[in-house]
Amino acid sequence: MGDQIQFIVEKLNQEPFRKNYNLISFDSLESLQLLQLLSDVLGEIDPKHAVDIREEPLEQTAKRILNLLGILKYKPPGTVSDLSAFRQGLVTGSKPVIHPLLHWLLQRTNELRTRAYLARFLVKLEVPAEFLQDDTVADFNKQYEELMEAFKNLHKEHEHLKISGLSTAEIRRDISAMEEEKDQLAKRVERLKKRVETVQNHQRMLEIARQLRLEKEREESLAQQKQEQKSQLFHAEQKLQRAQVQLKEMQHVVADSKPESLMKKLEEEINFNSYLVTEKMPREMESKKTSVYFLQKVVAEPAMTQADLTALESEKNEVNAQINQLVEKRMIKYEPADSKFSMYRQQASIISRKKEAKAEELQAAKEEMSSLERQMEQKSSQAHELEGSEVLTEDEFKQYVSKLRSKNTFYKKKRLELAEISAECGVLQRTEELLRQRHEAIQQHLQAIEEKKGISGYSYTQEELERVSAVKSEMDEVKGQTLDNMSEMVKKLNAMVAEKKASLAPVIKELRHLRQSCQELTQECDEKKIQYDSCAAGLESNRSELEQEVKGLLEECAQEESNYHYINCMKRSLEIQLQRAREEMKAYVSPDPQERRRAVREQYTRIILEQENLGKKLREKQKIVRESHGPNMKQMKMWQDFEQLMECKRDCFLKQQNQAAIGQIIQEGGKDRLVL
Predict the structure, then answer these.
(1) Which of 176, 440, 553, 618 to pair with 280, CA 20 to 30 A apart?
(2) What pLDDT shows up at residue 43?
(3) Handedness of CA 485, 490, 491, 492 (dihedral sign)
(4) CB of 242 within 8 A of CB of 381?
(5) Rounded to an integer, what distance in angstroms lies between the CA atom of residue 160 and that of residue 156?
(6) What is the pTM of this model?
């Protein structure tokens, strides 16, 4: 906390505040001075808030500061209860609330100044949906949003240019370079003209090139017109879509309703509106007028100290205790008939309160329904802009989901078939690889045998050919024997494979059934998973809605609590002022002269008389001063002349003394010379 206060004091002593505070003087500031200091800091961030809070109502000051803090995105520390305490502390100018706020503001003044400047242009005005049905209002609203987007882009470009750091010297260099390029291009054009003049029909070619350029410009303008017409067509389609939605809603209402139900609905709406006009609105207006009247009286009264507030609080508690005692006595004196009437009155008041609560709930539900309809229209328009197609209805979405499920099952079947084929392909590839390896081994074995037998494979002589033929015959006999052995081995292997197939046939059949059941279970599992995901998504959305509702209710509760504390303070101050007025009236009407002297009117009357007497004395004194002004000025002039004369004499005397001293020194010097 000490470092925080030190930082605040240092920042306030710098430009542009220059407050010349130290830690002691800053800590000794009162609540009103702290609020004025906070208002000055906010005025430096946003010039609209440079206000003297003494000339502004306290409620307006608190509302203004809270609105600006909301725009600046200041988050008070703590929970919702701390939020209500923060608001109360801001109204009363509490140091634990003002000091962290000043520290946060002074840490990021430049950033907050930019944010406050942008908020003047980027805080969007919410237009009700019923007004947006008008084409003119919709066009103005769209133009307003386009201007807002243009302002965003221009501000980003401005910030980018500021960051890029382009200087005037660089711009001048660029301009000079562009002028040089312009001169070079002009010279090149001149050279090209001279070359073209030697070509035949150059005028016709230039005319054709000019026409080509004009046609390209016309093509660009036509493309731009086409784009504008596309946008107009899109807006017209949106309007048509909104009109079709309204037509469908009206047709649905007309188809599902009867004249009796329509009349009943209209009667209910008329009753509700008449209740609002005749009962609820007048009461609210009367309460607002009363509160405004009392607030004006509070504003007109002078400021009160903490001691006055404590005294009035104690008096209020005593009066409340007396009221409770009187109410208890009155309840004891009630007769049975009066108790019955009181019970009926209580029931009537309870019913009226319930009626008011239901009316407020109905009004809030209507407002919520209108806002949800606006959101639905916005979402549908956004979806149309993104995908270029209409939003699916519930039945169409169900059909689309069923098609996706059928395609999903077909895809899973094909994927299983592909997996089986890939597995079989892997087995065949492995068999092929084994056979290739075996073939390579046999080839190597044959090469080794040939090398052992002395056959090199090239540059054989005739003798070697004969020997090779003999060896070949021998090898043919050996191969014949090996082939017989291999055929017998193949027969044995085929027999073994047949036996294995016969033994594995029931297992394969069972495996097929198991695969089919596994496929069915997998499909069922996927369907259950989809159901689970949809249910979880619905529960999650409900939970988020409930969280939002709870958050809104907590904020509303905090706001109402803050309003309660504020109204309670206003009530206390009004009661105190009313009590003072009663005491003043009582003292003024009292026949006792001592009581009358205590009245504020009598005190002010005495003070006025004293001030009038003092004014008379001062006027007489002023008259005397005016009469003696001339002689006194003349006497003062004479004294000034006398003072100048005496100073002149003093200067002459000092000069004479100095000259006498100098003559004496000269005489003494002459005597010394004579002696020498």
Answers:
(1) 553
(2) 80
(3) positive
(4) no
(5) 6
(6) 0.28
